[in-house]
Amino acid sequence: MASKNHNHNHIDDENHINGDANTHIPKKPKISSFITESEIQSEFSHHDPAVARINNGSFGCCPASIIAAQQKWQIKFLRQPDHFYFNELKKGILRSRTIIKDLVNAEHVDEISLVDNATTAAAIVLQQTAWFFKEGKFEKGDVAVMLHYAYGAVKKSIEAYVTRSGGTALERGKAEGRKVRLAVIDHVTSMPCVVIPIKELVQICREEGVDQVFVDAAHAIGCTDVNMKEIGADYYTSNLHKWFFCPPSIAFLYCRKSPKSPDLHHPVVSHEYGNGLAIESAWIGTRDYSAQLVVPSVLEFVNRFEGGIEGIKKRNHDTIVEMGEMLAKAWGTHLGCPRHMCASMIMVGLPACLGISNESDTLKLRTHLRDNFGIEVPMYYRAPKEGEVGAITGYARISHQVYNKDNDYYKFRDAVNQLVGNKFTCTLLSK
């Protein structure tokens, strides 16, 4: 990873971005070398050293240098809040939005809003759908579509906003000849995890006359390719605290500008209401905005790595496939998807003899591994199909981020092998 004479972005949070804030990331001054392995470990030395943390997908990670940058923003606000509000906040958030606009290849910075997380973004989009039902723009019984493996919070949001407003699920709506008003599609599903062919699905939605397409891509930025012009969705959201090293919590919501674009609003109404979603989201009352202000520092951090964020994504993918195949071979199981359908996470089958028979077993086994072996990894239960014998019913979702070492996965391998050798089954955890 180390190399000489590499360029990377250096953006001082105190200063303006050079050039047109609507179009360009500043030029990259030179530094002497890439980040070293010891520097990486120092950046994440606040992680619990006793835990093999192979679950970056749930909460992400934040380097020490970014935590320090965040604290500077927090102190700046606390030192003189009025000056911060009138002279720093809007400019700082615009800098962050401009960087994200370039990273995801949006047409204009006004298409990018910063919100707390992807769940907030879903609420913003689905709230608009609910208003369309209430105002009669959509007819009662019209359809909203989502994937079976949609994130649980998004399913609840559809229930809370769309169903209560008169929307129906696809099967009932199609039977009654209703229009499909909204399609909610994942880019990287959470559990089980798999990269969805998003461009193809968006195109199918267009061909089928779906009014609006919303892509829930909570895991995407920093994990897989994200290009707004190629994907072509109306709305797209991704967290920056999962795979882009920001502190929790921050996400962007892309809203494609077009003559037919509706006016979306933040669910927390404050003084900026009516000035556009990006401006509304930049001030929803007194709160900590520091996670939204450190994006320039995060860009500087990722560009210390060979290939920047693209290099990080490739190395994460290659390593997680390698570690997943190592685990599957050690346990006599298989991966949960083809290697080309994973990004920085992959599903690995657990030995059938562990006796995972329901979702409760996966939670108990996960806790057992955390408490007794120092391993943090999410697990998924797959009900056996009729007639299956000795089926793999439990899968682990392993992640790889720059701080992980091969020993994290060997530790997991050895722990499961120890359980198998001791004839452990999940029924023992209920006693």
UniProtKB/TrEMBL annotation:
- Output the InterPro entries linked to this UniProt entry: Aminotrans_V_dom, PyrdxlP-dep_Trfase, PyrdxlP-dep_Trfase_major
Keyword Endoplasmic reticulum carried by entry: no
Instruction: Tell me yes or no: is Ubl conjugation among this UniProt entry's keywords.
Output: no
Q: Which branch of life, at top level? A: Eukaryota
TM segments?
none
One Pfam entry name: Aminotran_5
Annotated region described as Disordered, given as residue ranges: 1-25
- What are the residue boundaries of the Aminotransferase class V domain, all occurrences included? 87-260
Q: Which UniProt keywords apply?
A: Pyridoxal phosphate
Name this protein carries in UniProt = L-cysteine desulfhydrase
Q: Provide the taxonomic classification.
A: Eukaryota, Viridiplantae, Streptophyta, Embryophyta, Tracheophyta
